[in-house]
Amino acid sequence: xxxxxxxxxxxxxxxxxxxxxxxxxxxxxxxxxxxxxxxxxxxxxxxxxxxxxxxxxxxxxxxxxxxxxxxxxxxxxxxxxxxxxxxxxxxxxxxxxxxxxxxxxxxxxxxxxxxxxxxxxxxxxxxxxxxxxxxxxxxxxxxxxxxxxxxxxxxxxxxxxxxxxxxxxxxxxxxxxxxxxxxxxxxxxxxxxxxxxxxxxxxxxxxxxxxxxxxxxxxxxxx
Length: 223
What we know:
By secondary structure, the chain is an alpha/beta fold.
């Protein structure tokens, strides 16, 4: 009998795997796109990640912040919400600052940020606008990664990593997305992983038994 307080245990899960994540959880489940992983492996002075809404910019910044911390760097992440034009982090003791939605900074804040970069701070930013001219005017080396729609293999890995992270028993066979399910999600949502996650949250709220997540299963929940 299903415990009404823990309905996801029936599915072998601790909770809905597509619920909102904390920053730490995002960093743990993140699957970096090849281009971002390559930039990190090769090394960079400063890095910007460009891409449309929902294509994984925030995930990449959180994962990179965690990676640099694990390597011993003093790194911090900050997200600029809509309407915010100033960052609040104290950057004086940092080696690396990851600023999400950096394009929202006003001109005075950009000047403040770049004055700190001149003192040795490394910057990783996400943006909808290309900030290359801003770096170029100051003679700063910038690596740019542009995120597009994920390939099917990458999308499948992203989805199944989320299921594995929330599995009750990581060593037991559990739920998995089939290739046709990943293909269906990409056809429906394009590269907008965030929109796909919102949809999958509703799917898992409605799942009643443990089964493979196929295209047929997903189509049951199309309104």
